[in-house]
Here is the input.
Amino acid sequence: MSEPETPTRLDPVSRFFGLKAGDLAIVAPAIVCAFSLFSAYSVAKPLRDAIGASVGSQQVAALQTGTFVAMIFASALVGLLVSRLSWKTFVLFASAVWVLGAATTAVFFALAGTETSHVVDKAFFIALSVFNLLSLSIFWATMSDILDADRAKRAFPAIGLGITIGAIAGSWFVSTFARSISYSGFIWISCGLLMIAGLALTWILRFAPARARQKRRTPGGSIAEMAEGMWTALASPYLRRLTLYLLLYSATGTLVYMLQLKIIGASVLDLSPEKAKVARAEISASIDFYANVLTALLQLFVAGRVLRWIGVSAALTITPLSTLASIFLLLWSPTVAMLIPVQVARRGFHYALDRPAREVLYTVVSPVERYKSKNFIDTFVYRFGDVVGGWSQVGLDKVLPSVGVAGVAVLCLIFAGTGVSLGRIMRRREVSAKQMQHDAT
Here is the structure.
């Protein structure tokens, strides 16, 4: 089906978001889809974190390893399906799988007894982590297919706002109703939100180009592309540093996450199992809610100005230094009262400042390098960093605290130094590109 006819006058919503005539017919359902998809995840995420807080560091590390392995298998399955189905058919199939998976999880949560709940909890922990990675990847790939570059520049900020508001709404809902709704009830709510996302995707796909009806990858495409992306990233000194930066971000972030789980778990030891389960979800949801609100405020009023003012190098040191400060503060005062502001500040500054700066790093590599390496870095390296961080925490628990703190401090300083060097190399590449353009003219 062709795109909607272009109206002669812009509606108020289009003017507010800076859209052009006809954009809203695609952007509005895309915002609905983004909001529903991410609020569904944000409703389920505190439950996953609560499960992690109920087990020891070694079990969490094992779950993160399971997530890494499951992600590889899921990527292989996605590549296999996309090589045999049109993109439109695959997206609709994936939406149906999300809804069915959420409904099945809700039923298992409702039926799980004491002996089986641990198996259900672990399966849920892994499945939700893989879902978050794949669902957003499929959504953004769909939007990139439908929108050309100029339209995407206008539409993506509005769609990104939908994701942020969805994250705020989902985490607020859990923090507010954790004591009155069961785990099964929350998953049913996620299921309903996923159905809305699927309906919105169905509408969006009405405007998909003709190539979306064709098979666009070779068999096993995801694994093949990941391997090709790995060699591309390792062949470039710049991309190698970018890979190291994300690996260190993921590993050190997991160390803070493991401390969060330990603190939350210790804070509910005097409660009954049922009340402790509720309290863990409530605390995790509160952290998510306030972090998402801070991220939104920084994105709206601060991020762009600060990034232009301090530059990319300085922006890339914010997360390493805030991570180091977070670890010191949480070791000094391992309480929920310290945990909430520390994690809110760290995550808010990361998503509003460090994350945009990291995306800017890809603007000085060739389109081929970006296409081949980015998926490998953002998926394989990111999840592998989780595994490294998880088992590092298990190792740190077995050594002297002073040795562990010194090791983490060195790691964060290497992390910060890598960020500074990336910013400098990017700047040199920008200058070189401008000089080549000047010489050409």
Residues 22 and 245 are 40 Å apart (CA to CA). The chain is about 85% helix and 0% strand. Confidence is low (pLDDT under 50) at residues 1-8, 217-221. The radius of gyration is 22 Å.
